[in-house]
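In the laboratory, one determines a bound structure by crystallizing the protein with its ligand and collecting diffraction data. In a computational setting the workflow is compressed into a single prediction: the sequence and the ligand go in, and a structural description comes out. We illustrate the idea with L-homoserine.
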Amino acid sequence: MKTIRIKSPATSANVGPGYDIFALTLKAPWDEIVVSIAEKPGITISVSGNNSPIPCNPSDNTAGLAVLELLKRKNLSIGVDIHICKKMPSGGGLGTTGASAAGAIFGLNKLLDLKLSNNEMIDIARMGEVASGGSPHADNVAASLLGGFVLVKSYNPIDALKLEIAEFPVVLAVIRKSQRTTRGFITYEIGQEKLKDQMARCARVIHAIYSKDIREFGEAINVDHIAEPVRSAAIPGYAEVKKAVLNKGAHGFTVSGGGSSVIAVCDKCDTEEIARIMRAGFADNPNFVDVIISSTSNTGVSVME
Ligand code: HSE
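The predicted complex, in structure-token form:
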């Protein structure tokens, strides 16, 4: 049996205005994905280290679905064992499901020496996202695979660009979603003014990354007219916590990925106080899991020794 052990980092998708096209790689948390070639054809999935139920049926699991897609595209009839060793809290909004799919495809690419390009791996891994959010969005899997800040330049064909990003602190409140996905409630009819503001903010995010300006970055991600209105409405206390965190000096605050987790970007000296505000603000929410202080990272999936 050939085996490989992969470290797959968490990601924060959308990054304010970049719905389905932006994602940020985080230094922590991360999951371990162990991929093995088995003797008998078929996919088996096992999970350890987590209390939340994660489906082990391959077609209901993001890694399983991505591997099914890979085997179909490459016309392979082999056996694959995937063990997901959860170290991240299952949320939503930390890209944990995308990290599993990214790790499994990266690992199989190495084990089988398939020589897939990054965009091919992203295109295959994103199919796994159908199991979690019902849509093959590429933002989370791209960031988990590539590291840094990822911009999906094209969906047809898939083309993702990694921008190296200055390492800056982030504080996340991990909050579980009360429903599988809120994508169906998002409206794209936002009107001319909001559309222009959304596009300007996307441009500002990219400019801030190039100029390594965390303040500009934070201000740009602070408003999103597409996903934030829908998702923040399902997070009790969101507006109050956002206001308190920004008053404390955070540069930006938004919903992380598909929610209900939230992310703040701030200076290092403010992380503890912002973590305290988030903990107090979300303490009464039964879906609140934990607060994590982390940072951005330019490292995507990697092989563990
Ligand atoms: N772009 C995705 C969304 C990320 O907002 O639904 C979450 O998986």
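The two ends are 17 Å apart (CA to CA). Keep in mind that any predicted model is a hypothesis to be tested, not a measurement.
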